[in-house]
């Protein structure tokens, strides 16, 4: 199947970056540019994956979109608004689950509900439903260190669900997991996006993960990060990694991405 047949035009923008530049000071006091004129959009209700080599500014993009960092130049918006005005609608998940170690799983998941003032009985009911949906039933009374890495990330996803955030920023959240667990959580994320109408901006080093997850792929060049390539992926879901069609798309997209990254070497 020609790659061009897999490139529709998706509509309704969740994430928008326009001419974003960002520099940081080195230890020696020299300004080091991390992002240089980054421009792309991520569709509403879809998964947008950002791929690129180490040092391409992928995490910096997420931090700017989240409102944790400010761009030196350019604009970054979520649904046309300043991210700083949407703090309660933004969820952020990294490689490390960031669960509080002194809290049980159910308490970690319930934390956003507690902050919002949800009555304890209602919160317990919601947490039970979230645990059942994420395969955590029976694990609610455990502490994070008593869970496997995959279960820890499920619990972290549970806290995002409890927060009722609509815009999820995910910084290589499945990288440290074994392949089988990683695939399970990728499938779970796709289901959650469909069920909850989530808009996800997902950073990954893995081209395979980007192809499996993404509705749109954004490729950043080596630092300073620039958008080297951006395209939409219309490969039908569920995506079967073993199918001939998937293999053809994987080969075409991998070649396209690696040819761009190779220019930086």
Description of the structure:
A hairpin with a 5-residue loop joins strand 1 (13-25) and strand 2 (31-43). This protein has helices at 58-66, 105-115, 120-133, 149-163, 179-196, 207-213, 244-262, and strands at residues 13-25, 31-43, 47-51, 73-78, 90-93, 167-171, 199-203, 216-220, 227-232. The protein is of the alpha/beta class. Helix 2 packs across helix 3 (120-133) and helix 2 runs parallel beside helix 4 (149-163). The longest helix is centred in the last third of the chain and has 19 residues, at 244-262. Mean pLDDT is 88; it is low at 1-10. The protein is globular. The strands form two sheets. The protein has a six-stranded mixed sheet, sandwiched between helices. It has a three-stranded antiparallel sheet with strand order 2-1-4. It contains seven helices and nine strands; from the N terminus they run βββαββαααβαβαββα. 37% of the residues are buried. It has a single domain (10-98, 165-262), classed as 3-Layer(aba) Sandwich (Rossmann fold), CATH 3.40.50.300.
CATH homologous superfamily descriptor: P-loop containing nucleotide triphosphate hydrolases
Coarse structural class:
alpha/beta
What is the number of strand segments?
A: 9
Distance linking N and C termini: 30 Å
- Put simply, the count of helices is 7
Name given to the CATH architecture: 3-Layer(aba) Sandwich
Tell the overall outline.
Answer: globular
